[in-house]
Task: structure prediction
Amino acid sequence: MRADPITGRRWWVIGASAGLGRAIALELAAGGASVIASARNARALEALAREVPAIAPLPMDVTSDASVRAACDEVGAPYGIIYAAGAYAPMSARNWLPGQAETMAEVNFVGALRVLSHVLPEQVAAREGRVVLIGSLAGFRGLPGAIGYGASKAALMHLAENLRADLGGTGVRAQIINPGFIRTRLTAKNTFAMPQIMEPDAAAGRVLAAIRKGRFATSFPAPFAWIFTIGRHLPLALFQAMFGRAPGFRDGAGNPPDKDPAP
Ligand SMILES: NC(=O)c1ccc[n+]([C@@H]2O[C@H](COP(=O)([O-])OP(=O)(O)OC[C@H]3O[C@@H](n4cnc5c(N)ncnc54)[C@H](OP(=O)(O)O)[C@@H]3O)[C@@H](O)[C@H]2O)c1
Result:
């Protein structure tokens, strides 16, 4: 029988002070894992650790090389790592806010590179492990009002494919998990309707189920996720027209995307 990837294993959750990452840390601990919980907010992490003794706080800022290096030195070779750090600001190309796109790219994507550059060699040397990247349905194709965020999630999805290609035979498995809307402080910034929005604990349950299944890519919830997985193969003009018509997907300024976007 295949060993459970969670019970008795050491997992590192990055982005564990709030929202989805916090819920994942709790689910992992409930599943019998020992969990290292990282994010910038040390007090939130300590409160989480007080609640659940199997969780150990380790503050880290993924945008800082020094902070990431120090934390990685402390963690060594975790069995599993879940990269759930995230930054999001709804932003249209028509209303570009200086610095926001850079922050989203740094936190959502570059931070993952920083962490993996230290952790992955340790996992490969240990000849076992999991790397789980939290992407988003917003990473599949260009959506209105997603400057910076969409590209950072697309980059994460591409990185996961690179990892899959390179890690065959090493004992380390890469997974990308693309959730739809989850009720967190991140989506509290959205003023539009969010179809099939999930609570963080329900979404964390889906993440753990995906880890146990071990499939490379998982997107949820259905049927909302199907629009993106199938939509990937539609002509771009048709895909974007669908979202231009949906009131939920107007850009930050309330505009639908251009009818005939520039090539
Ligand atoms: N909510 C959704 O609808 C949704 C949908 C699809 C995917 N996702 C993804 O799910 C993940 C979690 O998002 P969420 O919705 O749970 O948002 P959230 O509640 O805002 O949580 C984001 C987490 O990232 C951490 N973080 C932010 N900047 C960081 C930094 N510089 N260094 C270290 N940690 C940092 C935050 O902690 P500190 O502030 O303490 O640092 C927090 O723990 C993100 O990758 C997000 O893109 C969310």
Remarks:
- The helical segments are 19-30, 42-51, 65-75, 100-126, 149-167, 200-213, 224-231, 236-245.
- The pocket of NAP is lined by residues 15-21, 39-41, 44, 60-63, 84-88, 107-108, 134, 136, 179, 181-182, 184-187 (CB under 6 Å).
